[in-house]
Every structure is written in C-alpha cells, then in structure tokens.
Amino acid sequence: MTKDLGKIWAERMTKSERDTSFPDSEPRDAATLMLIDRSGAKPKVLLGRRHAGHKFMPGKFVFPGGRIEPMDRLMTAVSELHPEAQKKLTVQVGEPTAEFARAFALAAVRETAEETGLLLGVKRDEPPAVPGEIWTEFAKAAVHPDLGQIHFVARAVTPPRRPRRFDTRFLTADASAIAHTIEGVVGPDSELVELTWVPIEEAAQLDMPTITGIVLEELLARVEAGMGHQLPVPYYFMVDQQFFRELL
Questions:
Q1: Within 10 A of 188 (CB to CB), how many other CB atoms are there?
Q2: Average pLDDT in the 81-93 region?
C-alpha cells in the first residue's frame, strides 16, 4: 500500500455525494464483519443486499454489522483477540480497555448471526454461557465465539450532519470460522434479502456505499500482504469537510 494510494482513497471519500442537511450527532460505536473465502483461486467476500424498503441504505450491498449492545462485552469466548488487534482497537478511544476492544469483535459476530444466520466460532458438546437473550442462538447451537480468528482491517467515522453516524470497526474472519447455519434468516421480508459470495476484485461493481467499496480495497490489499495482525489499520475520519486516512 503506497501513501499516494491511501491519499486517493481519502479523496474519493471526500468527493462522494452525501446529504449534510441533518442535525449533527455523536457517532455510535459499531462493528462490521467481512467474511472471506480463500479456498479458491480468487478470494471471495460475503455481501448482503439490504431490503429496498429500508430507510437506511435501501437496496445497497453491505457487510453484516451493527452497533454494540451492552451484553456483547460480557459474552464468553474460547479465545481472545490477538494482542495486536486488541491494541489497535483501543487507539484513539475514550475507553482503551480489553473489554471495550472485545465488544467490537463480539458485536460483529452477533450481528452476522442475526442478519445472515451464520454463527462463527467453535462447535462443542456443551453450550456457551450467554449473558442475555440476544446470544441465545449460540447456546442453542453450542457454538462458542472464537475471537482469535478475527482480524481488524479498518475504521471509519460517518461524516457530520448525516442521518445516522457510526464509528465503525471493519473486522474480518475466514469462511472456515462458520460453525453453524440458521436457515431462513435471509429472505424477501428480512433486513438482508440475499447473500452473495463475490471475488473481492469484482465486488466494487455492485451497488454499495462508498466506504464499503473503499474498505473492500483495503481488505484485498491486506490479503495480498499476508493478513498479518501486525499490518497497520487505516482510520478514515473527516475534518473541515475533508476525509483523512491515518494508520493505527
């Protein structure tokens, strides 16, 4: 990844069309999970198409994800985040703790299960102890989250004066981490109406938010660099109506 290419991506973010007529608000912490399948000649990524009736990004292809819930940081796991991932998740935050970092990974795993029916982790004979109802599907399937399989790829903050603002951490895990599938979660009346595995190089051709396309390029660059936890994590944020890309 060259410095010039990173600058180009920040400029693309700045120039993308957006309605900034809304009252300003504080961004909410959120997490997104990019599942990648590297079993074939070209790595593929899982994307879901949002229901056309949604007010927020209708019909767009996105990664599963959502905001952190209070119970997420209390969920058990068979392994914890890699130290490098944990360290980078606690840079430039108000609460730089291990519990805060793991909440992002667990929120991404939970949201993926809720939106796609795919439960990530390790299947065992005994169910995991769950802190609340939002994690019961993992107990039913005896799937224990495995945070050691998760990589931190990018961070991006929604610009000011947008209808919804998020401080999103983009995480990734290999498709081999799928331990159980709940049928019927995706469909015409669901938040995601379809799921598709697309080669990362071709995914940007789909109708998706600008940041999704940018992070796909960041993901491909990371795959080509070997997916090491020590690789720097790009952080996109806006100052004075201009996006910047810093490395964590």
A1: 8
A2: 96
